[in-house]
Amino acid sequence: MELSRILIHERKPEQLIELREADPNLQSPRAFPIVIGIVEAAAIGRRLEGIDLPRPMTHDLLANTIEGLGATLEAITIIDLIDGAFIAQLSIARPDGHLVHIDARPSDAIALGIATNVPIFAEESVIEQACVMTPPDDDPTDGFKEHDRQ
Amino acid sequence: MELSRILIHERKPEQLIELREADPNLQSPRAFPIVIGIVEAAAIGRRLEGIDLPRPMTHDLLANTIEGLGATLEAITIIDLIDGAFIAQLSIARPDGHLVHIDARPSDAIALGIATNVPIFAEESVIEQACVMTPPDDDPTDGFKEHDRQ
What we know:
Two copies of one chain form a homodimer.
Chain A: E1 2-8, E2 14-20, E3 31-37, H1 38-48, H2 58-68, E4 72-82, E5 85-93, E6 99-104, H3 106-113, E7 120-122, H4 124-133, E8 145-146
Parallel strand pairs in A: 4-7
Antiparallel strand pairs in A: 1-2, 1-8, 2-3, 4-5, 5-6
């Protein structure tokens, strides 16, 4: 999957990101939105654009901690969708090569991974459920405007 | 040092935490406030009270990542005060016993460490500067009310 859009609604605390199938051979890549908080949306936008602040923000600290421990974030997978809430998993390679999996909110996972282009996957069952949840004629992005990437 | 107070101002985006010297033999322990964001104040309050949410919030994810990598947060040190901004450092023990130091904002460091009672230190020079910055007759906590610990 790829992060296809960040959708900002100026009068709502909830923001949207959209994930879309990234295979260029697909004629109609499937896409689905994930509702995230305004703080996480800001973190994703900032880290996507590589904006450095004088002091590390929380997701920078998380990235620096993983790096400082000699580990590497290898992949993000959206593994489940429970009661409308997506569950993501970080796959992190320890210095000894062992891969550990840690549950996360998709927003935290993507804010962490987006700065280094970590691949994003989604379980087929999640894509199917998410696409049923948001049929094409019900546009959940109504009232949102796209985050303007610099 | 110990986290002595979390001060909430309902009409300000900035919140205050107060660190106080923890040595019980001190007759007049010194204390100084640190301005933090509302999101970090909420995270500190929640993790201090051990409130578990269905999905990990960002500081829970950071704690789970350190644990998943077999590492342990050993200490938090407020190492510097530059232009009114405090710099903290996480001291994390890797599985091989090697200690790594990672710069952080004090709010993130304390939100991370408070759940497991990680000791908080401050460089003497920082305490001195911070106490000069906030003389006793200038109460920076005016208008704030104390976070009600459950």
